[in-house]
Amino acid sequence: MAKLRPYYEESQSAYDISDDFFALFLDPTWVYTCAYFERDDMTLEEAQLAKVDLALDKLNLEPG
């Protein structure tokens, strides 16, 4: 079984990057995955929110 410690330190460096760097290419929601473009005219921010809405709809959440 591989030791996790070296990999932890390598992956941790990705979280030590400043927010200013990520602000260069992320939209205001700061979502760091693919987007869901329902229409050709959607902005990145709209597509990120559409992805979140799609995921929530698939959960079939109900009150309570």
TrEMBL record:
Keywords: Lipid metabolism, Methyltransferase, S-adenosyl-L-methionine, Transferase. The keyword Cell membrane does not apply. The keyword DNA damage does not apply. GO terms for biological process: lipid metabolic process; methylation. Belongs to the CFA/CMAS family. This is SAM-dependent methyltransferase. Signal peptide: none annotated. GO terms for molecular function: methyltransferase activity. It comes from Streptococcus pneumoniae.
